Amino acid sequence: MLGVSHWRRSARPPRGARRIVTIGAFCAATGVAPAVEAGGFVTLAPQVSWVRDLPTVSFSDQTNASTRTVPPGAVPFGGPLTFAGVHFDSAITTRHLVVPMLGLGFGMLVGEQPMVVSSLDGSVVNLHPWSAYRVEVLGPGIGLRMTERRWTLSATMRSELVIMAMSASLAAGAGTAEMPDATAVGLGARVELEACRRVDPTDRACILVAPTLYEFGFLNGGVLALRWEWGR
Predict the structure, then answer these.
(1) Which string of DSSP letters, residue by residue, matches 69-88?
(2) How far apart are CA 172 and CA 209, in angstroms?
């Protein structure tokens, strides 16, 4: 009898294992999902970017005119500027977290923009804003999301690298000389506020508003995008 009693006690599963089995059975019976469910998405979207003020643009190379050579330097510019284009983006998600990964955007200037006349090293410089374009490289970030039925709301903060460029010319005697592109490069940060409606289990239609915390200045612009997201 002692041997049978000892065998019955040793055949019982450990208490921790019994708890795991009980929790698993409860989740299976009630349909409760695990607490952490990782996923992700990618998106390709049209967007409009606005910059309130671009303080300066720079020339990285000298300009050789018929009468003189103008060294590299920076000139004041101004604003505002509006760009229309597209962007690609990606993120890792859980039910309550969003971790933006890498994104890339490109836009061309829209609307009428007159020539800006400035000076560099005593020479007259003509900037051509109508030729301006913008490239943005979106870096990692962190944010929160909330899901209610078919709707998902999220707020994230992330870093960015912005490059803007435009053509320019130098007044040289009675004519002009082409200059290297005038560029502005800067690191920044922005907040992305997004609302999405799920169309099917993997597709969502979204609108994104992203005011910039810093981009060539504090609270200096923003982005509006209509996005279609593939993923969870």
Answers:
(1) EEPPEEEEEE--EEEEEEEE
(2) 45
**pLDDT tens digits for 218-229?**
999 999 999 988
Residue 218, helix vs strand vs coil: strand
CATH class of the domain at 36-231: mainly beta
The Cβ of residue 79 has, within 10 Å, a number of other Cβ atoms equal to: 18
- As a whole number of angstroms, the distance between CA 174 and CA 124 comes to 12
Beta strand residue intervals within the chain, DSSP E? 39-51, 54-59, 63-64, 69-70, 73-78, 81-93, 97-100, 103-109, 116-120, 123-148, 151-172, 175-178, 182-198, 203-214, 221-231
Residue-wise pLDDT for 26-69, tens only, equals 444 444 444 456 778 888 899 999 999 989 998 988 877 767 78
- For the chain, the structural domain boundaries read 1-32, 36-231
Q: What is the pTM of this model?
A: 0.77
Determine the Cα–Cα distance for residues 108 and 106; give it in Å rounded to an integer.
Answer: 7
Q: Of how many residues is the chain composed? A: 232
